[in-house]
Write a sequence for this structure.
């Protein structure tokens, strides 16, 4: 099913998994089900929490599981959280793993998480909004090993693979669950006595009524580039990410947030020359002001658009978060330009 964005797709997963565990909830709602809870890593996307508000389960129903220093869910913590929730009388219904976290681009260990889901009889959703695109590459699809055991998967084609916004699929291995969850058989539009084949009409399985034809964006992209063209573009992203990581490692004034990155999100600090005191590290609150200042200059002169952010779960002050994507295909000159330009824009800063 195409959904209007990864946030909506994650909400789909929460409803589908709930429907799967509690078929009666379609009619009776959740009032008799006890305190439903789902689990996602502390680095997971906020859409799980937002969806929990909309679905009447509340923000407290999303239990955050600790991530390791590279942003991957710690599976032992997941197990402990499930056991603790059960002991407290809560009712687990889903685990939301992330394949490509929004900030660090980390991939949760899907095979181990799938084992835990199997052990406790929980629905495994994989939020591959960011990372799903790596499946197009035979070279890099191992990043998502274990995804084949998921009950549902979110994949944003508008992220890594740059389809026009929004172009998202929610995939599920349960063929009838979309229908069971959403179908109301509205007679003005989903007549059951049509004299033609309506089996491809997905309307009754969707949360939306009128919809944009998001499929067309993917279809056109595949027509234009072909599977091999898409694969080459994805592989190029990986190569460029490796290239710029290497440059960032060597170049004075730049500092990587992690030694290595798993995919296309590269996070780093830039420390202007006048602020590089020999041996002393910069106070976090001072360093935190550099990226916003350079970002302002980027926007003023229109040369780059690179986001920045802090990471509060790891107490990291504002850093640049570069997202390398498929189209237009970038090359090493572009990567060099990014670093040169940040240096040019930031060289006189002294805070
Ligand atoms: C971006 C993102 C989302 C939300 O997707 P939208 O298409 O922006 O709604 C969900 N999960 C992850 C991991 C993301 O990076």
């Amino acid at each position: 099913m195409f959904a209007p964005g990864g946030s909506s797709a994650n909400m789909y997963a929460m409803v589908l998994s709930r429907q799967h565990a509690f078929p009666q909830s379609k009619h009776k709602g959740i009032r008799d089900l006890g305190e439903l809870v789902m689990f996602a890593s502390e680095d997971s996307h906020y859409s799980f929490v937002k969806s929990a508000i909309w679905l009447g389960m509340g923000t407290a129903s999303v239990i955050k599981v600790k991530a390791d220093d590279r942003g991957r869910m710690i599976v032992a913590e997941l197990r402990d959280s499930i056991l603790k929730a059960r002991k407290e009388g809560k009712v687990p219904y889903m685990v939301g793993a992330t394949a490509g976290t929004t900030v660090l681009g980390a991939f949760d260990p899907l095979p181990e998480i799938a084992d835990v889901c199997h052990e406790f009889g929980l629905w495994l959703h994989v939020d591959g909004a960011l990372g799903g695109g790596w499946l197009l590459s035979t070279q890099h699809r191992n990043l998502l090993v274990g995804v084949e055991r998921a009950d549902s998967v979110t994949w944003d084609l508008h992220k890594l693979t740059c389809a026009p916004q929004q172009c998202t699929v929610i995939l599920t291995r349960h063929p009838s669950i979309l229908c069971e969850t959403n179908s109301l058989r509205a007679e003005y539009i989903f007549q059951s006595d049509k004299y033609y084949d309506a089996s491809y009409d997905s309307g009754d399985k969707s949360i939306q009524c009128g919809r944009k034809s998001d499929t067309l964006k993917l279809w056109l992209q595949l027509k234009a580039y072909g599977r091999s063209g898409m694969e080459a573009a994805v592989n190029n992203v990986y190569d460029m990410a490796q290239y710029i990581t290497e440059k960032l490692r060597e170049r004075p004034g730049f500092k990587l947030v992690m030694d290595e990155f798993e995919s296309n999100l590269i996070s780093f600090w830039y420390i202007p020359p006048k602020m590089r005191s020999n041996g002393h590290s910069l106070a976090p609150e001072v360093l935190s002001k550099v990226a916003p200042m350079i970002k302002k200059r980027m926007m003023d002169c229109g040369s780059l658009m690179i986001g920045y952010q802090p990471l509060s779960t790891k107490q990291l002050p504002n850093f640049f978060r570069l997202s390398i994507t498929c189209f237009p295909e970038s090359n090493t000159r572009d990567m060099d330009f990014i670093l040169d330009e940040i240096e040019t824009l930031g060289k006189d800063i002294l805070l």
User: Anything to note?
Assistant: The chain has a mean pLDDT of 95. DSSP finds nine helices and eleven strands in the chain.
